[in-house]
Design a protein that fits this description.
489 residues, 6-stranded mixed sheet, 4-stranded mixed sheet, Arc Repressor Mutant, subunit A, 19% strand, 3 domains, single chain
């Protein structure tokens, strides 16, 4: 349940520091005075001139581009206040040996902290729980004072915290004990990517994912659906029409979307979605991660005759040669039923007959859960019996298996989240979590080792749904929640 707070003052901090707090990059500020825990105030981004060193020396190199951008946005007449904060703790540091550790957990250089300590004799490190305002407040610039009066009092709520309770508690403990950051190399990578994220959508997505993994934010903003879903949703419809040319292009786009590729410039054995094989050419051909040769046959109302299987063999041998064709997975994308001779020929030639609806389901799954389709795991499915029309069922079983695995992993992530919220803990030991999992109603029973394997997978930098603290043995590994694994029903 959210609560309301009355705020009538703002704490002046350097504009880059405020930006780092709003991003969730840090939870600490360095005011000139001691701030009582429990006090609430708005965050006022001030000019950098209040600092002791040039900003190139004051801020760590990984944060410097963001600091410069925050300074460039300052206005000489007005200031924009975007957040308010509550002081949770105010540490007093006067130990030079602790400054390097503090620097690693913040955006300030060790040199900046040393200069501050020389001038002030001690440093106030204020732990701030930051909340976004529903609407930014614009006010005239005020150049002096630690706290400034707001032009009008604000009644704010804690409905929009920058960090969740669990993540903030973990970050606060880390700062209070001056524990080293867990992934400094990822922080460097994030800073480099941040420069590209304003113009490159893929860089922006990766930037968001790294921030979530680092604990700088909990969830992605409402994810925009993959724009490719517009054409993906038409695969079955076009496959069941008489528009064979468009269907062939959609099939090529589908295989590219799934992760197949082809550097072959020969238009007769290509995967270029903007062209087709044309007369005498294969409808599609993939080179990597393994060769796939295929033919497309649109129209639900026409039976697929034996000449389609014969054509795939003839064109495959013509453009690929015996050895490459023999090594290729062979697929016929067909909406209509195969005649009995055609189906027997497909079985004898180890050809998979797949319906447009099944291809659409496969590609939709890839678009909605990008890491879900492993082409190397799909390969045995396509290379093993059954072939012919029965192959469609085995591909559907593969899709169902992937969905089931996603369901189990989503359940585990939610279990970690719920356990921590219920117990008000920062992390949970594997042994505890396995007990909670077994006592719940999971989609699939798992041994402790199986659960551990999935949690390690979910806490890898490439997924970032959970975090992991290694213990002295498997059962002592501890895990914490980072972000939801949402599934599309």
């Amino acid at each position: 349940m959210s609560y309301s707070v009355f705020v009538d003052t703002a704490l002046q901090l350097p504009a880059p520091d405020v930006e780092a707090l709003i991003e969730g990059r840090v939870i600490a500020a360095m005011p000139r005075i001691f701030i009582e825990p429990g006090r609430s105030f708005a965050l006022y981004p001030a000019n950098i001139s209040i600092n002791l060193l040039p900003h190139e020396q004051y801020y760590r190199s990984s944060f410097l581009p963001i600091a410069k951008n925050a300074l460039a946005q300052l206005n000489s007449e007005t200031v924009l206040i975007k957040a308010w904060a509550r002081c949770e703790l105010c540490q007093i540091l006067n130990d030079p040996e602790s400054l390097e550790a503090l620097s690693q957990l913040t955006v300030w250089t060790t040199e900046a902290l040393q200069q501050t300590l020389l001038q002030r004799r001690y440093i106030f490190v204020t732990h701030l729980r930051v909340y976004l305002l529903p609407q930014p407040l614009e006010m005239p610039v005020q150049s002096s004072g630690n706290f400034v009066s707001l032009p009008k009092s604000l009644t704010v709520t804690d409905a929009t915290p920058v960090l969740s309770d669990t993540i903030f508690a973990k970050r606060r403990q880390q700062l209070e004990k001056l524990e080293p950051p867990e992934h400094p190399e990822l922080e460097e990578l994030q800073s480099a990517i941040a420069l590209l994220s304003t113009t490159n959508p893929k860089a922006k997505q990766l930037d968001t994912e790294i921030k979530i993994f680092l604990g700088w934010s909990e969830n992605s903003p409402t994810a925009k659906p993959d724009p490719d879903l517009a054409w993906i949703s038409a695969i079955a419809q076009i496959g069941n029409s008489s528009d064979g040319n468009t269907f062939e292009k959609l099939v090529r786009k589908s295989f590219v979307k799934l992760g197949f590729a082809n550097s072959n410039t020969n238009p007769k054995a290509s995967l270029n979605p903007e062209s087709t094989g044309g007369a005498g050419g294969l409808d599609f051909y993939c080179e990597t991660p393994y060769p796939v040769a295929g033919e497309c046959k649109a129209s639900k109302h026409e039976s697929v005759r034996n000449n389609v299987t014969a054509q795939l063999i003839h064109l495959g041998l013509t453009h690929l040669g015996q050895d490459r064709f023999d090594r290729s997975v062979k697929i016929i994308l067909a909406a209509g039923p195969l005649t009995n001779p055609a189906n027997q020929a497909a079985i004898g030639s180890k050809m998979n007959v797949i319906r447009p609806e099944t291809l659409q389901k496969l590609v939709e799954l890839k678009a909605k859960q990008p890491g879900s389709i492993d082409l190397l795991q799909l390969k045995p499915c396509l290379e093993q019996q059954p072939f012919g029309e029965e192959a469609d069922a085995k591909v559907n079983r593969y899709i169902d298996d992937v969905r089931e695995k996603l369901k189990v992993r989503s359940y585990i992530v939610q279990l970690v989240k719920d356990f921590l919220e219920r117990t008000r803990s920062e992390n949970v030991e594997l042994n505890q979590l396995h007990g909670a999992y077994s006592m719940s109603k999971p989609p699939k029973q798992l041994s402790r080792e199986e659960l551990h394997e999935m949690l390690v997978e979910l806490s890898s930098p490439l997924t970032g749904y959970a975090g992991r603290i290694k213990g002295e043995n498997l059962g002592r590994d501890r895990f914490y929640f980072l972000r939801d694994l949402l599934l599309d029903d």
